[in-house]
Amino acid sequence: PQGSEEAKAFVNAFLKRSMPKRKDEAIQDILTRKAVVLEHYSKKKTRQKRKKTKGFTAKQRREMRLFEIEPEQQRYAIFLPLHELWKQYIRDLCHGLKPDTQPHMIQSKLLKADLHGAIVTVTKSKCPSYVGITGIILQEFKHVFKIITKEDKLKVVPKLNNVFSLEIDGFISYIYGSKFQLRASERSAKKFKLKGTIDL
To answer: Where is the protein found, in the record's own terms (predicted)?
Structure first.
């Protein structure tokens, strides 16, 4: 056990370390009150900024050919199961395509639906060479559809100035490409307004 003098010296030394900004007189004054409030100077923690994981740039995606379909994979038969999955997806989305279902309800659902796997036909176009192209949509971009035809040819069809027809369970819907120039992710959140007449 320490003596009273040693204990007093320890307390004084401890208080000096704990309260470096206080003078000796101030420390003695605190001791006479028999109540000591130790001041704690905490080091400010520097917050580390979280690094956002950056995806590939458009140029890098093109160089890596991420969205290109290899020639040996460009076969219509390969993507028929995708079309069957798409049809089931639309039936579930529209709660079953019954004969008494309102066409405008199906149309509004299709406007926001994912079209990868749908069979579409170009019915009208300002460029006659596009009219009649029929196939499964493999990729949808903001301005174009990539379609695989029954002849196993991959066609890049622009949305602008083209009208596409889409048939499922007897329901035929028309897509006006000029009003459809959105990415699939953007389209799902967009509110489409009903218009009386639409030009190519």
So the answer is: Nucleus, Nucleolus
Neighbour count for residue 140 (Cβ, 10 Å) = 20
15: enclosing H helix or E strand: helix 4-18
CB atoms under 10 Å from CB of 90, counted, come to 22
Residue of 11, 21, 19, 16 whose CA lies nearest to 37: 19
71-189: which CATH number, 1.10.510.10, 2.30.30.210, 3.30.70.1270, 3.40.190.10?
2.30.30.210
* Radius of gyration (C-alpha) of the chain in whole angstroms: 36
pTM of the model: 0.65
User: Which run of H or of E encompasses 26?
Assistant: helix 24-32
Q: What is the pLDDT of residues 68-106, one digit of tens each?
A: 888 888 899 999 999 999 999 988 888 777 777 777 777
What's the rounded Cα separation, in Å, for the pair 104 and 127? 29
